């Protein structure tokens, strides 16, 4: 589903983000990306989101080589790969309902589809009663649930989360992680960059650890797998 073939990223100022790396993530996996600050986690995610271009190598997602996509084709990639961030990035002047609806408007869903899908996804993330609230009226956990609802409402097969619990207290962090696990159980491939060592250890999911731009650990235990 996601293949990185000998991918490296050196930023224009010469800083190395990721050294040549090959990696594959299969449909339906739940993967943690771990490592210290500055190790290259975000670079790896941004490469998969086409927010940065690799210096060398190829990246393909769902059989499509994203490194070949033109800038203007990136919105189509967002249908395959949804994303949530540490700082939520909700639209402050839109309600919970409107934030989620807006993501569907962007991909030209009809009003009918929007009216059907938004309440369903708000129910799924436990926010049915908060539909009319504005982001500033919500707790951090509720804001992150809204961001997750917005990310999944278009049924993207892949969800990338960059430090999704970085701004949340421990119990809220567990709620958000459980929600991501639920979403994974529904068939979505979920990739989570995190510092939360305790969660990673307890959940026993695949862990890819990055250090100084190199994958130093990958606990993949599945069946068939390309040599990485
Ligand atoms: P992490 O997400 O693990 O904290 P990053 O991928 O953000 O790590 O960073 C990896 C390395 O790349 C760091 O040395 C960081 O300073 C550098 N870096 C990240 N973004 C840029 C950028 N836009 N320009 C230059 N260097 C960058
Ligand atoms: P439209 O006329 O554009 O189809 P809607 O009836 O979908 O409008 O929505 C009108 C307003 O009501 C929107 O701003 C939206 O925020 C709000 N709204 C619609 N449905 C719900 C709902 N199930 N829960 C909360 N707010 C809703």
Care to describe what's here?
The protein has 228 residues and is of the alpha/beta class. The chain contains seven helices and ten strands. The chain has helices at residues 41-48, 74-80, 96-106, 111-124, 140-152, 170-185, 197-203; strands at residues 2-10, 16-25, 30-34, 56-61, 64-65, 81-85, 158-162, 189-193, 206-211, 214-218. It has a six-stranded mixed sheet, with helices on both faces. A four-stranded antiparallel sheet has the order 2-1-4-5, with helices on one face. The longest helix has 16 residues, at 170-185. The two termini are 14 Å apart. One adenosine-5'-diphosphate is lined by residues 11, 13, 15, 17, 35, 37-43.
Count of distinct strands: 10
Q: Which spans have pLDDT < 50 for at least 5 consecutive residues? A: 223-228
The gyration radius over C-alpha positions equals: 17 Å
Main sheet: which strands, in order across? 6-7-8-3-9-10
What structural class results from the helix and strand content?
alpha/beta
**What coarse outline follows from CA principal-axis ratios?**
globular
Which bin fits the share of residues in helices?
25-40%
> Can you summarize the main beta sheet?
6 strands, mixed
The number of helical elements comes to 7
